[in-house]
Amino acid sequence: MYLWPLMTKVRVRFAPSPTGALHIGGIRTALYNFLLARKTGGTMILRIEDTDQTRFVPGAEKYILESLAWVGIKIDEGVGPGGPHAPYRQSERKDIYSRYASQLVADGKAYYAFDTEADLEEMRKRTPNAQYDAATRMSMKNALTLSKEEVSSRIAGGAPHVVRLLVSPGQEVLVNDLIRGEVNVSTSQLDDKVLMKSDGMPTYHLANVVDDHLMEISHVIRGEEWLPSAPHHVLLYKAFGWESSMPRFAHLPLLLKPDGNGKLSKRDADRMGFPIFPLNWTDPKTNETSTGFRETGYLPEAMINFLVMLGWNPGTPQEIFSQAELIEAFSLERVGKAGAKFDILKAQWYNQHYLRAKPIAELSEYLLSALKNQNISCSADRAIQIVTALKDRVTYPQDFWEQGKLFFVAPDKFDDAAVSRKWNAEAVKFLKAFRDEVGKEPGLNAERAKGLMEEVAVSQAVKPGQVLAALRIALTGGMAGPDLMQTIEILGGEETARRIAFALQSLSAS
RNA sequence: GGUCCCAUCGUCUAGGGGUUAGGACACCAGAUUUUCAUUCUGGUAACACGGGUUCGAUUCCCGUUGGGACUACCA
User: Fold this and answer.
1) N or C: which terminal CB in chain A sees fewer CB atoms within 10 Å?
2) Among A262, A269, A261, which Cα is nearest to A293's?
């Protein structure tokens, strides 16, 4: 029975490292954490894992904060709101880690090592599949092989050194994973992981375990790429004597590239023409700019709904979930084990759905603001009229401008293929007569336009079906668009007449 | 190479010892729309393979194959 989280306060954390833009997979990981927190009335914590000074990217932390805010993942505690376990930036907790590392050394659970990079390289070359472990550690330069005096004098002399976890071979480590069940690994397969680096910073493994313990994290929900090092983390909890309060683990399936296999990468996204980052991002080193999901026109509610379904399902046919419904429905038990391919088409479908579900007034704002950028004036009523006509034809907010600009900007050229198929003598005859009539109609609406069109068709002895395509070409330049009579209503009689006249003039010449 | 993880339509997935293997996206067809889109209806399409266990396996077990992750003083 899964009672544990009901009895202990759920505290989960999202712990990205500020090495660049937050990947969309990171958003999903954060989302799963967030949903569990909300579901259980627990706490969502944001911790920044910036222990690698060489990979630190300025602006990345701000980007993480903005991205989470954009998709509606609210941080209860941590970087940003602060909290009782501050600081939440690992670089600011340096001395905490070294204290715990020293404790491990004092307890004989870890040891100092002085090997240079060359030493390590040579060791690895010496034996195939070699790692720093029981089989090799006695031939290396460390506190296990050097005399006590030698070690003390080296440390006192400021010699560069690391702290390694002492892994005793021949034992089984059990990782109990909420998603994968029991994972057993022999300690003989595990290396003596570096805990403290020679620059005085902890590695992920140490910092992660110490912080999760200190911050009273109840569930570690992270990507599957961490599963292989989870046994080390279990070993660390044991070494510290924290086994009884060890968090539950849940290793999430990875997001895979849409074609072929492998982890979804920026490279794939670029290649296939879709975003990979939530927001626009400019790499401060290369100055390379990437377009985000937000700027591409994805709505946060669509992103959330799309991402949550990649690896989780409600067990019901429901596909559309508000954040509140997700919180209600979410459970780790229904997270799958297999990696999920990232299907941008599904994301588009969700986006289309959420976009169309918005109130017309809100949608018209998209058009209005685009018009403002173009310095085109438009009344609120007319914007609503246009947006209503376009509502079922859009995937992204900017489509309202893309598809709506024909109402503001007359075509100056015409689709050649359409013209050659649909532009003929009959059409010209009809258009001339229609042009003469349509401008005279005040307050022309779609219904009246249709009546007029039919009258003219009769008077010119043509069938509407033969000439309507040409009318559309004259008005819009091409073959696609909203209902023609609706288009005429929005355009107005005079503009309609003007466009027909222009088309007649430019197309009869050729 | 080693360790670990994974395996149902093209994709996301439901399901589970006996089912017409269900849904969604995508795709295809028809209807509506005097265009395109929308909408509606219908359709194509999956249990990787081989052994067990069993009266019966897609489901349970083992193996194979395939895929993935990790294999740094990166996270």
Assistant:
1) N
2) A269
DSSP single-letter state for residue A372:
H
> Does A466 lie in the same domain as A385?
yes
Would A201 be classed as within a structural domain?
no
Is the same domain home to A505 and A382?
yes
| A123 Cβ within 7 A of any nucleic strand B atom | no
Q: Which of residues 225-284 of A touch strand B (CB under 7 A)?
A: 225-229, 253-254, 256, 260-263
Residue-level length of chain A:
510
Cβ within 7 Å of strand B: which of A 363-392? 392
Choose among A255, A217, A248: nearest CA to A26: A255
Q: Tens digits of per-residue pLDDT, A132-188? A: 999 999 999 999 999 999 999 999 999 999 999 999 999 999 999 999 999 999 999
Is the whole model's pTM more than 0.80, yes or no? Answer: yes
CB-based contacts of A427: which residues, under 8 Å, 6+ apart? A462, A466, A467, A469, A470, A471
Say how many domains are in chain A.
4
Q: Could you tell me the residue range of the domain that residue A225 belongs to?
A: 4-79+208-253
d(CA A158, CA A154): 6
CA–CA–CA angle A121, A125, A126 (5° rounding): 115
Active site residue A266: yes
Measured in whole angstroms, how far is the alpha carbon of residue A297 from the centre of its chain?
Answer: 13
Residues A168 and A110 sit within 8 Å (Cβ to Cβ): no
pLDDT category, A5, cuts 50, 70, 90? Answer: very low
